[in-house]
Amino acid sequence: MLDVEVRCVRCRYDLRGCRIFRACPECGLPAISSVSAHADPGISELSHPSDPGSAAAAVAAIAAAPLVAVLLQGSGPAMRQVDALAGRGSSFPSQVERPAWLVASVALAVAAAVAARGLSEARNPELAASLGRGRTVRLLAALGAWSAVLAAAFVASLTPLGDAQSFPLVALAAQVLPSALALTWLSPVLARVGALSRNYREARHGQQSADLVTITLVACLGLWVTLPAIRGAVGDDWALVAWALAAFLAVITVLGLAYLAANGWVIARSLRRPRIDPRRLR
Ligand SMILES: [Zn+2]
Asked: What phi, psi does 243 have (nearest 5°)?
């Protein structure tokens, strides 16, 4: 128990009364890090997961998985759209779109498995304790549900159900909830892992972009799914406006997801290779 004033080196919280092997109640940095940083400024802001490799893989996987899932599914329709606008025949056969659901499903399942391993009590007890079971389980459940929806869509596409014209729209609509939940629950996990890593700033950016991209993703999917209804209700001109807006939202969403993946990569790297910040040695 600390019975003198010790400021947390990250957030300046007064750690008096805090147990030395516990985390700072404000930002999650272990109290021992602040104590040792005051003794030797060089060791401050070191991140020290027990198994840095698996922790880094977990962060990289969960930050990149949504981008991979969206790109895999979106590239086929996007290229067909470009072909249509250019007045060419289709250069991208539509038969590859449905297997893309299966590949995206596998990618999400792999990311969930990598995250489950890296954030587990057995591999990284301090990371797991700081995250709390709830945060990790919620994120893994959402990624698993998203993966399951895609797998189900692929299987259904092999049956007569898949011949229905509206089938791809149904497959898209079914993903709205699990994808939004995955992004929503990714945000606190990134913030938490960032609090333990050197790259708190990148983690905050990652968290913010996850929050923002959830909104653009839901808006974009919602607009695509309701496009036929919009066309029926208000005619082709307004449907074209809605289409342009949906396309714009799709671009913003992909950029947001790419930014999120890049932030995840930076956090992952700092978890794997903790180093002393040279500015702190002066
Ligand atoms: Zn703190």
From this structure: -65, -45
51-60, 80-89, 229-238, 252-261 — which is least confidently predicted? 80-89
CA of 10 to the centre of ligand 1 (A): 5
CA–centroid distance, 35 to ligand 1, in Å, is 12
pLDDT one-digit tens code per residue, 191-224? 778 766 666 666 677 777 788 889 999 999 999 8
273: confidence class by pLDDT, cuts 50, 70, 90: low
Give the distance (Å) from ligand 1 centre to CA of residue 195.
8
In the numeric block, which tokens belong to residue 47?
């991140």
> What pTM was computed for the model?
0.76
Instruction: Locate 136 and state its tokens.
Output: 């990790």
Nearest to 62 by CA among 213, 251, 214, 263: 263
Within 8 A by CB and 6+ apart from 215, the residues are none
Residue 94: per-residue pLDDT:
62
Q: What is the DSSP letter of 110?
A: H
pLDDT at res. 163 = 80
Q: Please determine, for residue 41, whether its predicted confidence score (pLDDT) is greater than 60.
A: no
CA distance linking residue 86 with residue 95, whole number of Å: 21
Is 206:194 a contact under the CB 8 Å cutoff?
yes
The alpha carbon dihedral of 28, 34, 36, 42 has a sign of positive
Angle at 36 between CA 53 and CA 124, to 5 degrees: 25
Please give the structure tokens belonging to residue 233: 């209700």
Q: How many CB atoms lie within 10 A of CB 193?
A: 33
Place of tokens 């939004």: 180
Distance 200 CA to ligand 1 centre (A): 11
Q: Distance from first CA to last CA of the chain, Å, rounded?
A: 30
Q: How far is the CA of 134 from the centre of ligand 1 (A)?
A: 21
